[in-house]
Amino acid sequence: MIKIRYADLSDKEILLNNDSHIKENVCEESIKNNRIIVLIIDGSFAGWLRWNLFWDEIPFMNMLYVLEEYRGKGYGAQLVEFWENEMIKLGYDKVMTSSQANEFAQHFYRKLGYQDAGSFFPFCNDLEIIFTKEI
To answer: Is 0.90 surpassed by the pTM of this model?
Structure first.
């Protein structure tokens, strides 16, 4: 059974154990603001989507992650679809995300209708591609 829902504080520990890109206080604040969505499969934590606002006005997906054993089964697309529908309910008509150029995720986002909107080299790391989508 698949369940997609907003994270609550009981999810904080498992999120922090799996997401090295967020500090504890930011994680807690994101949970309180409904900015983390979790994927639960057969009662087990299977992944998450974390978002924020770009320019304080456009929902930006910061992190989409499905645990290895659940990949390739369409769960990531279901998480994104849930998030996009939630953004529509909140009155947004555009969303954004990004991916490093050397990651497979760029192809995934394009398949979901995201369009390339530019790129940059953040802090001398690999090229980061920005994607946008009208919803």
So the answer is: yes
80 CB-near residues (< 8 Å, 6+ apart): 49, 61, 64, 112
pLDDT tens for each residue of 7-65: 999 999 999 999 999 999 999 999 999 999 999 999 999 999 999 999 999 999 999 99
Contacts of 26 (CB under 8 A, 6+ apart): none
Q: How are beta strands 58-66 and 115-120 bridged, if at all?
A: unpaired
Characterize 18-40 residue by residue with b for buried, 16 or more Cβ atoms within 10 angstroms of its Cβ, and e for exposed. eeeebeeeebbebbeeebbbbbe
Q: What is d(CA 94, CA 112) in angstroms, rounded to the nearest whole number?
A: 14
d(CA 76, CA 9): 22
Closest by alpha carbon to 49, among 59, 31, 35?
35
Amino acid at 110: R
- The residue among 28, 23, 26, 73 whose CA lies nearest residue 47 is 73
